[in-house]
Protein 1
Amino acid sequence: MSRRNVLRGTALGAGAVTLPALLTACGDGPGGNKNEVTVGSNASDAVPKEAFAQAFKAYEKESGKRVEVNTTEHNEFQQNITRYLQGSPDNVFMWFAGYRMQYFAEKGLLVEISDVWKGFRGFSKALKDQSTHDGEQYFVPYYYYPWAVFHRKSLFEKQGYEQAGNWDQFIALAKRMHKDGIPVAFCDKDGWPAMGTFDYIDLRLNGYDFHKSLMAGEEAWTDRKVKQVFDLWRELMPYYQKGALGRTWEEAGQGLQRRRTGMAVFGMPHPGSQFPENERDDIDFFPFPEIDPQFGRDAVEAPIDGFLIPKKSRNVEGAKDFMKWLGTAEAEDAYLKGDPNNVAVNEDADTSKYSPLQKKSAALVAEARQISQFLDRDTRPDFAQTVMIKALQDFIDNPKDVDGLCNRIERQKKDIFSASAS
Amino acid sequence: MPQNTARRAGRRTTRRFTRRDIVVLGALLGIPVLLDVVIVWGPALASVGLSFTSWDGIGDIHWVGGDNYENLVQDYPAFWPAVRHNLLWIAFLGLVATPFGLLLAVLVDRGIRFSRFYQSVLYMPVVLSLAVVGFMAQLLLGTDQGVVNTIIGNEQDPVDWLGDSSVNLWMMMLAASWRHVGYVMILYLAGLKSVDPELKEAAAIDGANERQTFFRITFPTLRPVNVVVGVITVIEALRAFDIVYAVNKGRNGLELLSVLITDNIIGEASRIGFGSAIAVVLLSVSLGFVVVFLVQELRGARER
């Protein structure tokens, strides 16, 4: 066999493989295949990935359409989102509620789905607000998970600890834990876990409205109110475990599981996914303690994940039909069967199979007067990513220089928020 | 005489180009030049242009003049540490890791026992990418579960090798050096093999001791290798992105200019103008070194 023959053979072979694929791709024309919905997924971890697969299978069965999932690694998906939406995105993609969604709606990268929302039942007003930009809906919420102070039930019983209702009790509890050699868990190597604590102290001390406008860039970070947040936080610092900046949230979750630490301000999936299945019943939480009685414990930080349609979607009709289904209680049930670390947003969802922890979470959010997302979802992504991550890490590194810290944040905030206005 | 005419004839043919020569030359020179312009100079100049604008990657591009540079120097807390770390990285690789690689090369070259074994062991890390070195460093230096802390057994008061901003940069430079030393060693070994042994013998006859022989004879003859190693050291230092990114996304003590560029341009942040301004700074730093090398090289070529 000569070299030329080999080459010709491979060329023909390659053509035989790729041609049909090309032809089918062309056959659907620019509209895409109407009987297929493609989903851009950021659910790259094993548990949610499998749970979503089950949920989509339920839709396929019901509608007779095909769901094609394109999964991208979680962080990579986030990194490339702007390019993704401007390139050739899937028909539907997974994303987050609140400012994160509004930002893209504002930029005209999303399809408005108010008509789909008209058929929805079982969503509270707070949820609708989180899905709305400029009076129009763009987002179908799917599940959420609250942030709170998580701990092991058995450890609290053994040590005689009691859940803290207000700040003084919280500090006293932290102090006792530290003395017992089981400090408060803390981590911020990933850059975001500490944001939860900042959010909660601000929400409890200054209220939801202030927090929201602070995130929107309307309040000065040099305000006395903000400095007080850092001052309160500093009271907690001595009782944290050491080395927070070198610890990932997974490691902190494992520390909690091994009883090396006493409690942690976390979102529900964080301890949830680090505890082996037979120990999950031992996870408990209490709401972040009250600081100012005026605001009580009204606000709950509960990031909502869900689905949106990109403007460049090639099958808007199919996507909307899919969204209609995603907004039903059954759709959420289908998912939560496979993932016990989140809670359904729909009030009609089946809660009978919930674990005690899920039930408690659902109650916590149901009683909440306000729902906040999370610092990086409540403000501009460029501000959260380039300013706040470093600022909070700097604070953890050196908690004393609050004035300098707030000045630095404020200067950068002005640069960023004014650049967009020009 | 025949030699002379041949040379003259040869000169005449090179001077006159046929049409075909021109086409071939044009293609051979033109394509690389075009690629160079499109792939290298185009983006570089575009970055310089973008650095005077504000753009979020979606909407319109606004001209903001020197605002980005002003913000960068005055308001961006990560900027000066990043510049400092970049220069420190170059200094560390250049003054510690590279000389150490040379020392190892000299030792191995002298044919000590098991020198093949040492050679392969030291060269091993070179095949790893810096990102992999970063992951290995995490396994070794993790606060709670790292090997080093487990061996020290300081569970109550762990050393935060990767999180403590006064320690982590040095740890990362050590980890990066682990790879760099092997690389430098292999280059110098090749160079040392090509040094004419007669030179050393002559020096020995003249009564030079080993140290003198090395610094007066061997090292100067290694000049071409030195230049290559110098260039590689600077490139490696400026490229030190993967390792810090793998460890903690280049934050909190591990800031480098390349990381800041990524942080601002890639991802949801999309401060493309601002990121470009940082890129221009990095470009200037690199150009500084490139110019120094070029001047050195040209001067050397003229002397030769």
Note: Residues 5-10 of chain B have pLDDT under 50 and may be disordered.
Protein 2
Amino acid sequence: MNPFLAVRLVSTSIHRWMYGYLTVPDSKTLQPSPDLAESWTTSEDGLTWTFKIRAAKWSDGKPVTADDAAWTFNKMMTDEAAKTANGPAVENFESVTASGQDLTIKLKAPQASMLENPVPIMPKHAWESVTDMANYDAEKYPTVSSGPYIAVEHKKDQYVKLQANPNYWRGKPKIDELQVIFYDNPQAAIAGLKKGDIDLLGRMTPQEFEAIQNDPNIEAWNTQGRRAAYLQVNHGATTTDDKAVGDGHPALKDVKVRQALHYAIDKQKLVDEVQNGLAKPADGSIVPPMYKDFFWEATGDTKVTYDPAKANQILDDAGYKKGADGVRTMPDGDRKLEFRFTIHTETPIEDKLAEYLTAFFKEVGITLTTVKLESSKFTEETGVTGNFDIAISGWSVNPDPEEVMATHLCSRRPAPGGEGGGTESFFCDDTFEKLYQDQLKELDRPKRIDLLKQMQERLYTQAPIIAIYYTNDLEGYRKDKVTSITPIPEDKGLLYGGSGYWPFYTVDVKAAAVAGGSTGGGSNTGLIAGIVGAVVVVGAAAFFLTRRRKSTADERE
Amino acid sequence: MTTPLEAAEPAAVQAAGPGDERPTHRGALRYALSKAGGALFSIAMVLVGTFFVFRLLPGDPVRNLAQGRNMTPTQLDMERRRLGLDKPLLDQFIDFVGDTLRLDLGTSYEYKRPVLDLIGERLGPTLLLAGTGLVIAVSLGIWQGTRAGWRHGSRFDRLSTGASLLLWSVPTFWLGLLLMMVFGVGIGPIPGIFPFRGIESVDAPDGFAYVLDVASHMVLPCLTLVAVVYAQYLLVMRSSLIEEVSQDYVTVARAKGLRDDDVRRRHAVPNALLPTVTLVFMRIGFVVGGAVTVETIYTWPGLGQLFYEAISVPDFTLMQGTFLLITVAVIVMNTLADVVYHLLDPRVRSA
């Protein structure tokens, strides 16, 4: 529960409800809006940012000052351990100083995503005595918080109990108590929802969702999600010094082959039959359509539609001739177009995906064999050593897609010694790099959005990754208990899976009749939210949750 | 009816009694010592094995620790030094053995806490669940096995053996879910009566009510556990009783005109218990490992769940620590089983 260390989705979600940040996504537009910082200004050169911290109070009654924010950032800049969770967020910081309620951040280089700062502001008075940050578990309750809720009790992997923060600057939340209960077993969580042990359950698989769809007491919440699922294609993995690594198939270096693969995939069929219709076929790239501002969709000639004939045509024209067995070979030799498809062990839905892709690629003379790896090995082979041809991948995208774009930068490739990294595709492309640098400097939002869209288009046409679908966000809550809840974004948005505390701040529940004989002291206006453990057990909890561990860093919402 | 377990010990000693040489204390001690020596050797081998096997596993521990976040080479080096991974393998091994002997199992990557603390927290729930499950399964198995074996071929025999074998072959996960649906959620007119998640309610009351709360949380996991494992005790008890029944001494006892009940309880059962007792001891070792599947179905915060988590992360120190604990427990219990068997059964002793 230490926010300087926490990277798991569950803890970071809860921190979103407990602590204030400089800004918070607006509940309607998802654009950064004031949170603890009530206003801000930027210098001409974009290097100095001044935030005015609002006159809020910590839950223990002490005032929130710019000093708290400065302490938080400085701690992260000076203590290696404190960098664990959100280190990259302060990498570009030159200095952070406070004066009264004014927080001044000086940057080394312009950074347009300054308003998407993912760091929770911590109370200096409660935290400055912590010396060994790496081993501090922050299990002191009640916590000193500035968000809508205060954690009052926590049992590791069992539950977290939160209470409304009476000092919250927006006003105390409508419910008094929020219990977040962990389930290791998705079936048990669904059973809990059906029985009424829990009131709300987030992040279901399509199969799990179907189990609650016809229950009269449950509102099945099916909306566009924040996840993009895509294939990662080994188009010639290299390290930061441009040395080739791994054993990717040489044919995949040819952009024609990658495009042919793209034409060979029937995305609608994948949506219908692998995702039970609960997804949207991807005609864009890594930003899902729920982010209306940033979403880019291919149109006209650029658009790749399912067309095996065209795929065959492209491959024929490029000289990949079909052999007697129907399998194509490289133009300059007799190596066949036989690719490996790397998926995770114990994610049945990926097995199904592999079957379909194998059939699609067979149509165009390409053989696909499936390789299953457990998640740490998967991360290593597809993100560091480059020992793969095609791999399943996916990402939960934040309201600002900068970070997910950054995973396709040259600098994110592994260092010569195999260190560092954090690449999503081993992509290294001049056009893409330039666009990225330009958007960093661009403080004009519409112009920046346009640059980010161009980056998506580049990814789409170069196809180091091929987006296949955007999975829906599948949740459910008790109609008989929850009287109102506002999703984020407010127009058909997400509940638990959303970014920010909005749904849990606005949720209101029916006062439950206190059962006779039970202790009277308990809150009768509480919400109990069930969460399937972050450690995915038998039959993965959320579709691509087990993909690379690195996504957990991104999923810090 | 007296529970067979209570009857077991005195009766067994008695059975070993007349006519046989009693073990000299010295002989028993020597046997126990030699067994303990063997166990220590096994534990030493496990230490060596654990160290090297866990280093052969795929994945760089530091990278796992980073969980794929973007870490600078400096940060990675710092972590390596902190974990002692920059030292030569032999030094690391010596450190590892020394630390383990001092009961320092290292710090979990995931939890940032000493592995021993984590194990300590989880040991209680595991012993409670798996221990209770074992006691019930053993009692039920021995009781049913005795009845079935004594009148083998009878309706009771066919029914109970059949039922236990059916449960034994059913996948634990499936059975757990079925019980959860029927007794937890409720089907049709049957209301759900038992909780099916965790060891206690979030708003658990205090005092005796707390005990009841935990007990009600135990019902379904315990039932699942017992249903799946009790067949082995039943079958061993049944077959060894059948074997005893055909022995001359049973015929003699019957010929003496003893009541059928007495023959069974005082003569046949004590002898037939021997293999079961061994089986029970061997199982106690595994109890420590918990029942991974059952703990997972019901989100029971035990060691099995911890071990599973350690593997899924993967959290090497935690994996190593829990693995060591489980293997050592199994070795110790197997040794005890040998010694107890030796004490109970003269035939083994003379061999």
Note: Residues 1-21 of chain B have pLDDT under 50 and may be disordered.
